[in-house]
């Protein structure tokens, strides 16, 4: 007996990051406001059947799923003009046969308070270890400001910026999805987010980003 197809529409949307394409679906791919970022097929195995399948494409290096979209990061082997239609159609066909894109979000696919690179001598502290994260009286206010003013715009661009910690005047955030490695993300970070937080919370001196 033939399995009934699930009517599904998918369209592709460019992001500020030239390596990332956002594929928007007409139904939720992950529930309860969760987000998941996968950097390998092994990491996605069992947790996200959709992400696991996308890693079968040799040019896919990262899959970020949030709300009703999946943001796919590719390497430099092929231009988007050569693969975008194939990838969009593949995602649509897969979703027509499968209702569940993400079964659960493994700990490794959640925001992590870990360094992405070791700092160089003279650099501003650019990361914070999980063991160094201590709750502060400003955490909830920072999260509220990010959720209200930053999250919608960032998700529109296919990414996420997650609050990690506030320490010694520095707000540490983690960049994921299209925001990770985006050429314009630092401008957004300093020109937009940092100014926003400084305006509302005088104790904030700087916003520091670390990639997943």
Summarize, please.
With 212 residues, the protein is an alpha+beta fold.
Highlighted features:
212 residues; alpha+beta; 5-stranded antiparallel β-sheet; 5 helices
Count up the helices.
Answer: 5
The name of the CATH topology of the largest domain is GMP Synthetase, Chain A, domain 3
- The CATH class of the largest domain turns out to be Alpha Beta
Order of SSEs? EEEHHEEHHEEHE
Report the end-to-end length measured between terminal Cα atoms: 44 Å
Task: Report the radius of gyration as a whole number of Å.
Answer: 18 Å
Number of domains: 2
The major beta sheet can be summarized as: 5 strands, antiparallel
Range of helix content:
25-40%
| Level-2 CATH architecture of the largest domain | 2-Layer Sandwich
Overall geometry comes to: elongated
Q: Give the rounded overall mean pLDDT.
A: 83
What is the tally of beta strands? 8
Low-confidence stretches: 113-125
Main β-sheet, spatial strand arrangement: 1-2-5-4-3
Q: Can you tell me the CATH superfamily of the largest domain?
A: Fe-S cluster assembly (FSCA)
DSSP strand content: 15-25%
Descriptive overview:
This protein has two domains: 10-108, 2-Layer Sandwich (Ribosomal Protein S8, Chain: A, domain 1); 111-211, Fe-S cluster assembly (FSCA) (GMP Synthetase, Chain A, domain 3, 2-Layer Sandwich), CATH 3.30.300.130. It is an alpha+beta fold and 212 residues long. The chain is built from five helices and eight strands; from the N terminus they run βββααββααββαβ. The strands form two sheets. A five-stranded antiparallel beta sheet has the order 1-2-5-4-3.
